[in-house]
Design brief:
The protein has 138 residues and is an all-beta fold. It has one domain. The chain is 0% helix and 43% strand. Strands 1-2-3-4 form a 4-stranded antiparallel β-sheet, with no helix packed on it. A 4-stranded antiparallel β-sheet has the order 5-6-7-8, with no helix packed on it. A hairpin with a 4-residue loop joins strand 3 and strand 4.
């Protein structure tokens, strides 16, 4: 069995997404049935659990011979190709359901966030707030 800690430092090579066919695609919103982050030696597969709207995460050895094309590319995720996996977070909502999974690439803060909602995954990129520099007036 592979743990997420075994994947630290591995570079992301590509992300595969299986589109949700039960829901209409809303422009600008990414709601896949499945997301697979392909790393150098491992892969992280994220799926929604339809009974509870939770997230199921599988971490396994990357087998290039057995990769399936899940057909939809999300161009913004290409920005993370070549970056090393550095952190992961499991999030539970106020009712105790594990419905949030977050990965950090090349940094020790969140980069990509997945939320299980209504039998689908919602995918977000995370950026820190930038506060403009202020000039001191003493």
């Amino acid at each position: 069995m592979i743990n997420i800690e075994d994947c630290w430092g591995e570079k992301l090579t590509k992300t595969l997404i299986k589109p949700n066919t039960d829901y209409a695609i809303v422009e600008g919103e990414c709601t896949p049935d499945e997301i697979i982050f392909i790393l150098e030696k491992s892969k992280i597969r994220v799926l929604p659990v339809t009974d509870t709207d939770e997230i199921h995460v599988e971490i396994s050895k990357n087998d290039p011979e057995n990769q399936r094309d899940l057909s939809i590319a999300v161009p913004i995720l290409n920005d993370y190709n070549g970056l090393s996996l550095s952190m992961a977070w499991n999030g539970a909502n106020s009712n105790g359901y594990f419905d949030l999974y977050v990965l950090g690439f090349d940094q020790l803060h969140p980069t990509v966030m997945m939320l299980s909602e209504g039998n689908v995954l919602k995918l977000f990129t995370v950026t820190g707030l930038k506060i403009p520099a202020t000039k001191r007036t003493d």
